């Protein structure tokens, strides 16, 4: 069986995350420089090779001071660890259109397995005849598992930044 290769369409994709701030509001961020590929034997993506890399210095939360802090040694330490990587180990069908994506996430010099819920949007031809594929991914990770430990206690109890990070990723791929 032949292998089909897919490359990310960055203009129609978003790598986003949310973290609770002061225990009661969410701060959203995203990475604007990234690359992803899929190599699959068929369009259902089971047993597909899925790879992702993102540039840590492209993180944006809409606040320059906060972004500078995120790039520092307190958090991502972008000078020492300039990239985030993900490599799939399985893509398993749960129900029609619903999958579980499991893979190794490398961040801040640490590699750990993560599980993400995947909504497979299927295939579509764009107006120019290109075949596109859509995936929406959601999941949660604990930033401390990757050594992102910085925090500050609040006078009222609790902490400034939640340990839990919610991932919200929208991907569009172009068939090669």
Automatic annotation (TrEMBL):
Give every Lipid/polyisoprenoid-binding YceI-like domain span: 5-174
Cited Gene3D superfamilies:
Lipid/polyisoprenoid-binding, YceI-like (2.40.128.110)
**InterPro entries from the UniProt entry:** Lipid/polyisoprenoid-bd_YceI, TTHA0802/YceI-like_sf
Coiled coil location:
none
Q: Which SMART domains match?
A: YceI (SM00867)
Q: Which residues cross the membrane?
A: none
**Matches recorded under Pfam families:** YceI
Q: What is the lineage of its organism?
A: Bacteria, Pseudomonadati, Bacteroidota, Flavobacteriia, Flavobacteriales
What SUPFAM superfamilies does the entry give?
YceI-like (SSF101874)
Q: What is this protein called?
A: Lipid/polyisoprenoid-binding YceI-like domain-containing protein
